[in-house]
Amino acid sequence: MNQKSFDIIKTHIKPDEELIKKTKENAINYPKSESKSQIIKICIAACLVLSIGLSAVLTYGEYFADDPKPTKPIETLNNQENKQLFYSELSSPSQIDKNLINFKSDFQTADIASFNEASLRDNCVSIVEGEIISITPKEYVIVSEYEKFGNNTITEKVHTLIYKLRVTNTRYGNIPGGKTILIEDRAFFIDEFFSLKVGHRYILPLCYDDGEITEPTGNIISGNTKRESPYSTIYPFHPQIEAVEGGYLFTNDWKSLNVSEAQKIVMDIELNERGKYYEDKMLFLSKSAFEKNFKKITDELQ
To answer: What is the enclosing helix (H) or strand (E) of 251?
Structure first.
């Protein structure tokens, strides 16, 4: 029995003052034979009162524990299940390689249409999932003949990023799992949020072009325009689908994935002007829900 139980007994089981008075009188005035008999009766009565009190404490004592641990209300449990998801907790930040910080993108600022998954039907040859092993910048320098304005030659530069990807799963197309491929993008952003990151896993829709990286202005004198890789990401102007613990991160531009089970992501990282467009557009789906809905996309491509 704990201290709180004793306190309750003292509060609710009070001694009978009249009974105590009579006991004292009997002890002084009654003959010994009668006093003894009376005292026994009084003790029996007192024990009966105490017994009733103890019974009540044993019955309800569980409500008076010294350190009660109340059951969490249903509302609290539901709030925990639907807790906010923070981007920084799902996708660990990666420092941009110093070789990329000042590397120039050929892409010029312009109004860009939002991604539409329907565009996959036009030129998607494969959708692969895998880990980025490395990112390498490349500069093509092409010198060609140029007669205009009296000049003899012209020098052109093309900048690309080459991603080395270890394929773990091919969701569409014929690229075998376990193979390492190169993906070359001419249009790209160097940004902690936008950019693909080494060590992270993504699902990337790819297009194919085994031609030249650019069409030279005139006859080539020096340089090479042959692409390093025939594969490019279909739409490099938005965050790609990223595999994280328990599921996938993606933008709500993926209409087939923007379902009721998708949870909104709180973007708790610093975003630049481009990134702010996606501040309220990032979603998360558990692996099972993602697989079910992404299959609708690949089935459309068959």
So the answer is: strand 247-251
